[in-house]
Write the structure tokens for this entry.
Amino acid sequence: MDTNSKRGSPSTRPLLLGGGLALLSALLGALGASLGGALGALLAIVVAAAAGAFVLGRFGASIFGGNTLAPAESRPKPSAAAPVADAIPQDRIDTLTGLANENGLLAWFAEKQGRLAEDSKGIVVLVANLDAFEELARTRGKTMADSVLVEVAKRVSTFSGEDGIAARVAGDEIMAVATVVPDHALEYAEERAGSMAETICRPAELASGALWIGGSVGAAVGRPSEGEGVFTRAREALKKAQRLGQGRYIVDPGK
């Protein structure tokens, strides 16, 4: 049997309570009038009001169906493990640096290419490579080398801008893609490539002390419609910069 049928539905409970209090007030008022006139009636009404307040405070939650707010500590809290609707697939993330991997970079480009073209945006691709990274891993250990790579990845990622992306595309190659107005693309690429080359040559402050690192930068300017060809030209520019020596950069202006 429905328990609400015994005690009345939530919509009828306030009426029952109000009727009961009204009846109580009337009875006490009549009793007070017969015993002490107007003063007695007023006293009886005050007593009835106090009784009503006590009843509401003591039994209101059960009378009105338990809809009162529970104490803050007993209320359910949102789960911190709630899934994120737009979470990036794990196969697109480099687990060491937290940047995109090459798969994630290509997926980003495929998704953004059409919109960038519609917005008449060009792209600047900058790719940095560390000098003697394999030697560092061999002489100082993989843990030390990974720490340096993570630090460099943080620095390179700042060059991608709000609408771009940064990715680790090979062992020690970190790439940043930035969007830009085509008329200023070459000027922007020259300035950013020089700044990145200077940035990755700063020492890394590690737990064991400062470690000097260095590298080279290649850059390329192009249109979104060129696809992966811009990435390839940036890597070719990087090879030329490496032949020039540490801290150097080359920019491929495109067509």
Notes: The helical segments are 4-7, 13-63, 102-118, 133-140, 142-157, 185-200, 229-244. The chain has a mean pLDDT of 76. The longest helix spans residues 13-63.
